[in-house]
Amino acid sequence: MKSQTETIDLNRRDFLRDGSFASLMVMLGTVELRAQNVPDPKVEKTYAGDPVNVALIGCGQHGREILRHLALLGNASVVATCDTYPAMLRRTKDLAPKAEPTEDYKQVLGRKDVEAVVIATPSHQHKQIVLDALAAGKHVYCEAPLANTIEDARAIAKAAQDHPRFVFQSGLQMRSDPQRRFLLDFVRAGAAGRNVYARAQWQKKTSWRQASPNPERELAVNWRLRSETSLGLVGEIGMHQIDVLGWFMNARPVAVTGHGHIVQWNDGRDVPDTVHASFEFPGHVMLNYSASLANSFDADYEMIYGTDAAVMLRQNKAWMFKEVDAPLLGWEVYARKDTFYKETGIALVANATKLVAQGDKPVEEAPFAENPLHFALESFLINVNELKTGVEDFNATFNPNDTPALVKYLASIKRQPAAGYREGYEAAVTAIVANQAIQKRTRIPFSKEWFDIG
Amino acid sequence: MQFTSRTATALAACLLAAGLFVSAHAQDRVKYESQPGSKVKLDGTSNIHDWTVESQIIAGFMEWESSYPLDPSQATPPALKVVPKVEVSIPVRTLKSGKTLMDKVMYEAIKQTEHPKIEYKLKEMTLSKEARKAGDPIKFDTKGELTVSGKTKPISMVVAIEKGDGDALKARGATPVKMTDFGIAPPAPKVALGMIKTSEEVKVTFEWITKKAP
């Protein structure tokens, strides 16, 4: 039997063929990584404090997805929906029966009972709404990307920074996902060795075009297809994947080279339907990103390649593919293994060992509870309640005008994991610059000042 | 009825006396009010792990006889002539464990919605006989009433007083309490197969910062 310390000059497939039964059993595991603290969806959740009165601004497809989650969260009460297009408001009726529909967001911000707003309008419209919402004293959840220009994103981040009494959450929902938070620790602890390379893709065969009844509506609803109003695939979709990988590697990109073309949907759009972007990270670590609307093969995933193993994330599942010379991890023997063509992956389930020990099966997937957006909105609402009661209790006890002491107190309140204005801003800058590189088919080094909020 | 000059004089004398009394009272006492930066900590245990709950919101005040030298630099502080008036309250919802589920279990156990505050009132206070050097905090033996979850119980503890920045005064102390004394059943939440059992003993530790009222 080959020992773990022996130098083995084999690739993984050779090792599988020649290895002993025991090592085969170990190697036959794609170890699935899953978070231990994923709440059991069957247990009904209740929350401290009253439900937060929320308004949704922007009721398109994604806005309605947000409403679906808010309807299931016990700590939310949707009191208003807002969209400039009445048909969209009508479609929210079933999801938010108690909400008052309105076409003017300022009317929503004027309502005293509205405590928090979720902004899901097209990205280029975020800035003014966020600034007005914070000025009106509302907690804000703003969808990603924050904005389409560095100036607008910075204005948003700065306003959030200047309003410490209110929660500002950026819509990078992966940052609140227990599965990804578990993988973060796993990768940062070096379980896959030293990171050497990363890759992510998103592929779907779809025009990305939405049906519209008239030319005016066509312009409004298909804002994603025009470079004037859209950061394209890298900004609207890729930024979540790129952010997760940068977060895992604990680094910001230093340069990006991009390419983008319209290869399939030449229907008058000027946003590429197929894009590639290579991000250079410190220490010669590259992150290659590709997205396409022309082919759907292998859908979407993120990968980090380390010196000991590669880790693959596919939505809420993750696996580890070990190198033959990597040290043995005790728990992997018990972990579930999945085969991917000629490779075997050890399924990375955070509570795997515990579940095996208890003779229990992993928590069954629940369609909504397993969704990162669900966790992000839940974090937002809990944090709103924490901050709101924190301000009330401080003001009732101490001098309410003692802002430095209040800010210090609020900073000491532990919050649920969520992307704040800083994470949102940095991800937006990365996506904005990557989109420029893609549009110009060139290499752009990141300037450090771009990441400064000021 | 008609005012005579005599009744008017008597009335004036009364008012004067009352005024004098009020001002004498105010001069007699010096008030210190709660400031941000205070901390109260509850330490408990269970069959699974130890737990800690903290709050930074301690509301209230203390009133000392103004002639009493609250100066730890003296070697032998004099005995108290008058028991200071001390009233403290802590909003239950500001107590945090860092875990939302545990917080919820705790608030329910304390019946936070009906009894949103934990309150304390000082009843007796004497200079501690414990040996001390000049510069050490001045220690007092105290007796007071603690109200948790609507139930009031006497508690006694040693409280150390020291000077803070400027005209701030810091009070520190610790005391064990029993949940059952306040009608609180030690939580056994319906999680982890109902196997978590909390011990009823809780250690309360506080550091309360106050500042002379303007």
Descriptive overview:
The complex is a heterodimer of chains A (454) and B (214). Chain A is α/β, with parallel strands linked by helices. In chain A, 35% of the residues lie in helices and 20% in strands. In chain A, strands 1, 8, 9, 10, 11, 12, 13, 14, 15, 16 and 17 form an eleven-stranded mixed β-sheet that branches. In chain A, strands 4-3-2-5-6-7 form a six-stranded parallel β-sheet, with helices on both faces. The N terminus of chain A is likely disordered. Chain B has 214 residues and is an alpha+beta fold. Chain B is 16% helix and 42% strand. The longest helix of chain B has 24 residues. The two termini of chain B are 44 Å apart. At the A-B interface, helix 12 and helix 13 of A face helix 2 of B.
Q: Using the CA coordinates, give the radius of gyration of chain A.
A: 23 Å
Helix/strand-derived category of chain B reads alpha+beta
CATH H-tier superfamily of chain B: Lipid/polyisoprenoid-binding, YceI-like
What's the overall geometry of chain B?
elongated
CATH fold-level assignment of chain B: Lipocalin
Low-confidence stretches of chain B: 18-24
Through-space gap between termini of chain A: 60 Å
- What is the mean pLDDT of chain A? 88
Radius of gyration of chain B: 22 Å
User: Could you tell me how far the N terminus lies from the C terminus of chain B, measured between alpha carbons in angstroms?
Assistant: 44 Å
Q: Which sheet architecture does the biggest sheet of chain A show? A: 11 strands, mixed
Tell me which protein chains meet in the greatest interface and how many residues each side has.
Answer: A-B, 22 and 18 residues
Large-scale geometry of chain A: globular
Helical amount of chain A: 25-40%
The SSE order of chain B reads HEEEEEHEEEEE
What features would you highlight for this structure?
heterodimer; A: 454 residues; alpha/beta; eleven-stranded mixed sheet; 35% helix; globular; disordered N terminus; B: 214 residues; alpha+beta; Lipocalin; 2 helices; 10 strands; elongated
